[in-house]
Write a structure and sequence with these properties.
Layout lengths: L15 H4 L12 H23 L4 H14 L5 E2 L11 H10 L13 H9 L9 E4 L1 H13 L6 E6 L3 H9 L3 E6 L10 H6 L5 E5 L11 H14 L2 E5 L22 E5 L12 E4 L5 H11 L5 H10 L3 H24 L13 E5 L11 H12 L1 E2 L1 E2 L11 E5 L4 H13 L3
Parallel strand pairs: 1-10, 3-4, 3-5, 5-6, 6-7
Antiparallel strand pairs: 2-8, 7-8, 9-12, 11-12
Length: 424
C-alpha cells in the first residue's frame, strides 16, 4: 500500500500469494496445503492478539479514570493529569452547530468538507487543498499515517523519547518496530544529528513540536537539520503539530517549511478547545493522497459531520482562542512558581503546549518508589492527579512527572501547596 515519497522506494509490494489466501476453513478433504493455511491463519490471529494484549495503558488516561472514580465517590480532585483545555467550544462554533441541527448531518466525503479543507490549506505554505484531509482527531491521523507509510515486521520507525506514548503503543500494536531516540536537557530536549545517526537505518521518524510532555518548540535550524537528515537517508517524516497556536515566544515553525513531503498531523483539540469533538486534519504527500483517502473510506468513513461544521466556524475564533493562550501563560508561571516552592525546579523548557515535565528523583528513586507510585500516592493522599513520566519515556521516566496547566488557575495553585506540604 505504501507509495514512493521523495524518491523513497515503495515498501508495500507485498506477496500476491499471501494476500489472496483461500479460507483455511473451507469445506473439503484435508490436504497438506490446507493444513498449512490453517496453521498460518491461527498463528496470525494469535500474534495480533498478543500484540494487542501487550499494549501498555495510556497512563494519563488511566490516571484520569482513577481520579474521576474518586470524584464520583465524593472526593475533591485537582486535575493536572490530562492535556485537555477546560474552556468550552468557541462561541462562533457553538452558534454554527446550533444552526446546523435542523439540516441533514450525514456522511461527508471521506476527505472532509471542501470549504474546511480549503481554509486549512490556506494556513500552510504552498499546500494545495487536495493534500489536506479531515480526520477523526489526530489519533486517526496517526493511524492512517502508520498504515500508509510502514510495513509490519520490516519497517523501523524512530520515536523521540520522552514523547507522546500513543506513537509507541500504536506502532507496536501494528507490528511495526520502533526505535527509541532519547533526547536530553543538554539540547533543550530536541534531537541532535548525532542522536539521529545513532538510531541507524530507519524507514520513518516521528517528531512533535511543540512537544508533549516537555513543551519543547523546535527552532528552524533543528527542523532544517531533521529534514536534511531524513532526505539523505530516505526516511519518511511524520510530524505532530497539534499544539501549534499554543506557544509563548512567537509561533512555532512547521516541518513543511523544510520538507514539503512530510506527513503532518494536526487537530482542533488543543488550541481550539475541541478535544471531545474528535476532529483534526492531515497534510499528506501528494503521491499518497489517494491511498490515505481510500484508507479513510474503509477505516473511519469520515470525520463526524457536525464536528467539521464546528471546526470550520472555529477558524474564525482567533481572538477568543488567543485569550485562552494568555490564560495558559499565566497558569504556566503559577505552576512553575508553585513547583519551585515545593522544591521541584529541574524542569523542561515549557516553550509551548501546556505541560511542565519535571525531574523528581528526590520524590521517587530516593525514597524507593517510581513515578507511577508517586502519582498514586499523590492522588490518594492529596487529591492531586498528575501523570507519571513512564508514560513518555520507558527508560528514564520513572524519575519524572508531567503536570498539565490547561485547567483552572486556582486548582493549580492549591495543588502546588499540597505537593509542598506532602511528606513521603
Amino acid at each position: 500500500m505504501a507509495a514512493a515519497v521523495s524518491g523513497r522506494p515503495a515498501t508495500r509490494q507485498g506477496n500476491a500469494k499471501s494476500r489472496h489466501l483461500e479460507n483455511p476453513r473451507a469445506i473439503g478433504p484435508p490436504t497438506p496445503g490446507r493444513a498449512r493455511l490453517a496453521s498460518w491463519h491461527n498463528r496470525t490471529v494469535i500474534d495480533a492478539a498478543l500484540r494487542a494484549a501487550a499494549m501498555p495503558p495510556f497512563h494519563a488516561m488511566a490516571m484520569g479514570r482513577a481520579a474521576t472514580e474518586l470524584e464520583a465517590a465524593g472526593h475533591r480532585i485537582l486535575h493536572l493529569e490530562v492535556g485537555q483545555p477546560s474552556t468550552p467550544l468557541p462561541r462562533v462554533a457553538a452558534d454554527a452547530v446550533r444552526r446546523s441541527l435542523d439540516s441533514p448531518l450525514g456522511y461527508t466525503n471521506a476527505a472532509g468538507l471542501h470549504r474546511l479543507r480549503s481554509r486549512l490549506a490556506a494556513r500552510c505554505v504552498d499546500v494545495d487543498e487536495h493534500r489536506v484531509l479531515i480526520v477523526a482527531g489526530a489519533s486517526a491521523g496517526f493511524t492512517l499515517a502508520f498504515l500508509t507509510l510502514f510495513d509490519p515486521g520490516t519497517s523501523r520507525v524512530g520515536v523521540i523519547e520522552p514523547g507522546y506514548p500513543c506513537y509507541r503503543n500504536v506502532l507496536a500494536a501494528l507490528g511495526i518496530e520502533l526505535v527509541a531516540i532519547p533526547v536530553d536537557p543538554a539540547n533543550r530536549w530536541a534531537p541532535t544529528i548525532e542522536q539521529l545517526e545513532a538510531a541507524g537505518d530507519l524507514d520513518g521518524l516521528i517528531i512533535a513540536s511543540p512537544s508533549n510532555p516537555t513543551g519543547t518548540v523546535y527552532d528552524d535550524a533543528t527542523l532544517a537539520m531533521i529534514a536534511s537528515h531524513c532526505r539523505r537517508r530516505g526516511i519518511a517524516i511524520v510530524a505532530d503539530e497539534i499544539y501549534h497556536g499554543i506557544t509563548y515566544q512567537g509561533p512555532a515553525a512547521s516541518i513543511l517549511d523544510h520538507e514539503p513531503d512530510a506527513f503532518v498531523v494536526n487537530s482542533f483539540s488543543k488550541y481550539w478547545s475541541m478535544t471531545g469533538w474528535r476532529v483534526g486534519w492531515v497534510v499528506v504527500p501528494d503521491a499518497l493522497v489517494d491511498i490515505v483517502e481510500r484508507l479513510q473510506q474503509n477505516v473511519y468513513i469520515c470525520a463526524p459531520h457536525v464536528s467539521q461544521v464546528a471546526a470550520l466556524a472555529a477558524l474564525d475564533a482567533q481572538e477568543e482562542l488567543d485569550g485562552h493562550v494568555e490564560r495558559y501563560r499565566a497558569n504556566r508561571s503559577l505552576l512553575i512558581g508553585g513547583l519551585a516552592a515545593a522544591g521541584i525546579t529541574d524542569i523542561a523548557p515549557a516553550d509551548g503546549a501546556f505541560y511542565v515535565y519535571a525531574h523528581v528523583p528526590h520524590l521517587t528513586t530516593a525514597i524507593g518508589i517510581d513515578s507511577l507510585g508517586l502519582g498514586r500516592r499523590w492522588l490518594h493522599e492529596l487529591g492531586v492527579a498528575a501523570t507519571a513520566g513512564v508514560d513518555f519515556d520507558l527508560q528514564r521516566g520513572h524519575e519524572y512527572m508531567r503536570f498539565s496547566y490547561a485547567g483552572r488557575g486556582d486548582d493549580i495553585g492549591r495543588a502546588c501547596e499540597l505537593i509542598a506540604s506532602w511528606q513521603p
